[in-house]
Amino acid sequence: MSKLAVVSGGGTGIGAAITDKLITIGYRVLIVGRRASALEKTKAALGNAVDSFVSDLSDERQVSELSSYVKNNYRGVDALINNAGGNFELLEPSASTDLKTIATNWTGNFKINVLTTVLLTEALSPLLQEDARVILTSSIAAYRGSGTGSYAASKSALHPYVFDLAKRLGPRRITVNAIAPGYVEETEFFGGGLPSGRRQQLQAETLTSAVTHPKQVASLVGWLVTDDAAQVTGQILQINGGARLGN
């Protein structure tokens, strides 16, 4: 029987690339997201190894329904990839700087980056198989800021959660790590895309003079779920072409 991976935000961009990678190494993948159309498109492209479940992962009721679905249809979870998220301030742009807007932005980023990860992980943790892999998605912004604060803060909040989870789940030989990408092309993160000048600036910040692509992030995830990475846990792994050095 194939191992099961659950990938949140698996319908597009990095999540779809991760799903594709996991299928190639023998996993069955349950992709989760808010948009049925995106999930169905990925299922159609990748075939019968993909299952899907529509869920707003910031809603505890919907996450509970997802947990019940997994429990009733699968023997357990072998890999949990928390990829869902984004920058609320880009999704819901506002020029206002009043306190109500500030509160909305900070609460919005907490919900889509922290709460989605925590609720899904806690709901599925009893279903994790021994030797399972848990991966969270942080960002280069957690190290150097995001310009407005709320997105970077929400991503950096995941780091101590990684450390605590790694300690809690380690006795079950479950590893917990986070990946922290820099700028990644071919995603919906910036909506309609970046102005060419901004893209060139981000590319110039790297030591490799190249941008990162979803397949490269997926390859890192693909390695983390293998036995070769069994002793890697409680870590934040950056993938940004050297745009930010060190830990």
Automatic annotation (TrEMBL):
It comes from the Bacteria. SUPFAM superfamilies: NAD(P)-binding Rossmann-fold domains. Transmembrane segments: none annotated. Keywords: NADP, Oxidoreductase, Plasmid. It holds the Pfam family adh_short. Residues 3-187 form the Ketoreductase domain. One of its GO terms (molecular function) is oxidoreductase activity. Belongs to the short-chain dehydrogenases/reductases (SDR) family. PANTHER family: 7-ALPHA-HYDROXYSTEROID DEHYDROGENASE, 7ALPHA-HYDROXYSTEROID DEHYDROGENASE. This is KR domain protein.
